[in-house]
Amino acid sequence: QVQLVESGGDLVQTGGSLRLSCRASESIFGYNMGWFRQAPWKQREWVATIRNSFDTEYTNSVEGRFTISRDNVRKFVYLKMNNLVPEDTGVYHCNTVQWATNWVPLNNVWGQGTQVTVSS
Fold it and tell me: How far from chain centre, in Å, is Cα 38?
């Protein structure tokens, strides 16, 4: 299984921006990659996916504010987050993903994630 390490989370004010990074232990070529987040006392939710083809998809609440990208050579996946709001607060994880009736993680072992806190 690909091991993933997330970084880049921070405490920001409403309207601020962050860029999260996800470093893979091996090649991500051929994988669809996704970001998920888990807010306090809530279930983990899917946020964004970038396919191996570089096509992207986003959950409705982040559409137009977040941008997912990938660098297959360096084995990184990124999530650029603009115009952050308190509802974006949570621990963000990346994972390899596949489409079922929605985007689901392939890897059942999660990394530590990176904490994003947006203050009002």
Answer: 11
Lookup result for tokens 């504010």 = 65
d(CA 10, CA 66): 16
DSSP character string of 48-111 = EEE-TTS-EEE-GGGTTTEEEEEETTTTEEEEEE-S--GGG-EEEEEEEEEESSSEEES-SS--
Average pLDDT of the chain? 96
Torsion angle, CA of 114/69/76/60, rounded to 10 degrees? 30
Question: Tens digits of per-residue pLDDT, 96-112?
Answer: 999 999 999 998 888 89
Looking at residue 2, its pLDDT comes to 86
